[in-house]
Specification:
Chain lengths: 179, 708
Amino acid sequence: MQFAFYFDQTRCTGCHTCAVACTDWHDLPAGSVNWRRVITYEEGRFPDVSVSHISFSCNHCQHPPCIESCPENAIHKRPDDGVVLIDEKKCIGCHACEDACPYAAIQFRPGNDSKAEKCTFCNDRLAGKEPPICVAACPMRALDFGPFDELSKRPGIAGRVVHLPDCSWAKPALIVKTK
Amino acid sequence: MSGDVKKVPVGCGHNCGGACLLIAHVEDGVIKRITTDESLPDSIEGPQLRACLKGRSYRQRIYHPDRLKFPVKRIGERGAGQFERVGWDEALDAIAQKMLDIKEKHGPTAIMNISHSATNCHAYYNAACLNRLLNMFGGQTTLESYVSNDGAVFAAFHTYGTVFTANEREDLLNSKMIIMWGWNPADSIWSTNSSYHVALARERGTRVVAVDPRLTNSAAVLASRWIPIRPATDAAMLIAMAYVLISENLYDHAFLDKYSLGFDKFRDYVTGAEDGVPKTPRWAEEITGVPAGRIAELAVEYATTKPAALVAGYGPCRVEHGEQFSRAAATLAAMTGNVGVAGGDAGIQIFGYPIMTKVMQFPGGYCPDNVSVHFNNWADAIIKGRAGGYPSDIKMVYSVAGNTANQLGNVRKADRALKTLDFMVVHEQFMTATARYADYILPVTTQFERNDVFTPWLLGHYIVSSNQAIKPYGECRNDIDICAQLANHLGIEKYNETSEQEWLEYLTGNAGISDRDKFKERGFLKYELERSHVAFRDQIEDIENNPFATPSGKIEIFSQSIADLQKPDVPPIPKYIPPKPATEASEFDLCLVTGHGKKSSNSMFYNLPWLRDVEAQAVWINSGDAEKRGISNGDMVKVTSAVGATTLPALVTERIVPGTVNIDQGIEFEMDSDGVDVKGCSNAVCPDGHTSTAITPYNSTRVCIKKP
């Protein structure tokens, strides 16, 4: 089974509650890493303007380029749910995974000895049968999670991060209902 | 470390209009995480009370390094921000002594109470504690006006005879069309789950249109069409829509005959029979910048799609003659028969379900010797006093749960006024723009450090149990306890002899809380309604027995009570009245609007690093306007009005109508040596004073903008 995120762009007002909730739950410092990000796109000229937001994190790819890039085998994909996790003890901070990730999902805090970090799919919450914090936080109920195969049946584009460069070869576990 | 995590429900409600649920995860007396309502099921009928990004970042607010921990006393010049630590007893003694002195020499009304709205959802710990203290002390100068929505309140009373004019949000699911007119719930919240309900309605096939000077986050995502309009011209567009309904005979004659008064007079104005000027879409196009065809199209769509909700925000009535916007919107709602029906809207949104019948607020009491001035004249009244026609000479200012120096127009005048004072006391959690001027700042708890019950602000039929999660921070005390201790120092007896728990039981006596422990554990109590709450349903179903609360018992499109006020600038039927010509018209060539951004609730929250990461303060300017002025995205610019100036980065965008700029209100000012704000505070350029209907006309401020 492969877990995935579902993102309904038709509902997202770009409020950033998902990102702030993630930051609080994982106690991330301000001005540093953002495991979940919201990006706003403005297109067109007044008065024919369109605005869309996208909320995304690590997409827990089915062919994760970060795993192949790591010289220390510090990144693994959990067989039972496809969640990609970094072993902080093994990470030597070489930044190879940061370069390999097409979504800038793997990040490093400022400083020379920082380790790679990213969305854990709220591993800790999943263990207690709770949804990832971003999903539970969204005031618009625009985020959801579940098995990739099931979510792929809902309306949306599966396995590609809209607005971002097409890296569908990595098979990101994200389904986006586009605006 | 015990490692045990205790989850404590705490309310979040700070004058954004929401009342949400936060869950504090407490470990060894420290909040480690904050989550929100995760109770199941999260259904469309009873959605979770999910908090926004501001509530979710509350941990940074509680433990902010700048949080005030102990009482301080001013040691430098007033306003210079230099303070030293003092003990509670020393502070309370000095404050009491000074208050008695001022009362002796100048009378009690020499004390102005500038408390405001940060805790107005809180049943017990709210700003009424100071009102009570000063009333028992013998009087005070109070401040009147709602600041946010005086135009809507004026219009509601004169048109409908009440401020209970709003349908509950879930009723939007019954609408076939929603017009978001100057209403941006995605950023400004306006009651928990507002945006969610608009999204749900749209997914069920409801057409959603936004009329707004900006393509707000609500307009951009929730609406299928954005109609950009010049600010302060909304009444003209509504009146032209009425013209279309009249000329195409698309209005509900039977509804108007049965439920309204004075439509004929309004019709004569609209058609031009009164003044020779037919208020056609072409007439309105000139004023509003909205193409005539678009106006006609929206009018027809609104009149033929039933039921339809014209949801009017407060921004469009926070302008000169802003009450005409609300009066015109109500008239259009009546013309289309959308008042008092499920899925409709009365055109003015103030209170929905009367939650105050369930939970009372701590009583501030009353003193017959009180005098009052308009909120937006507070600084002027301090400077001019009786000689300027005000009812008192102010020597002292006292503030609880507010940041009045920053949140009312003309901060330069606020700075001048506060520097004339003999004495000033502020209860605060942070060194705010207002607190900087105080003689004594007394540190207060947040709601995480005390027990309370919250109610929604305008809409919502539920209450929130806000429970103490942690011990008071540093030496912080509760506002009400500070007032009680000060009462002792002042020799006032019986200020408060009742415990927190007894008060909360009393204030919630009618709330129907059958199991108080369960309420506290769950964090909320929702009231099931038999059918969705619709304002004026009783009137529409049976007008004979349930007349409107107006003098005529009908919806007053013509209002004799307005005519009786004999205000030359307030006609008894809704009209578009152009703003008075600016004397400096050529210089101030842009109109300012002041949105409510997602990054703050009034002046709260923007000091939190997590929220600064989300969105930086900037002035929105259309790309065409920017190009003419040689302004590029991110350039520092100076925005100047007749009252002052502010500097901030420019956000060059297509999302705002040309000729208009937007500065989100709420960012705290800091003035340079020339008196120019350097932080992007909208009230550095918005005016003080008010219209004849008590409106603070911030959104019709004329400004110019250039690179410094």
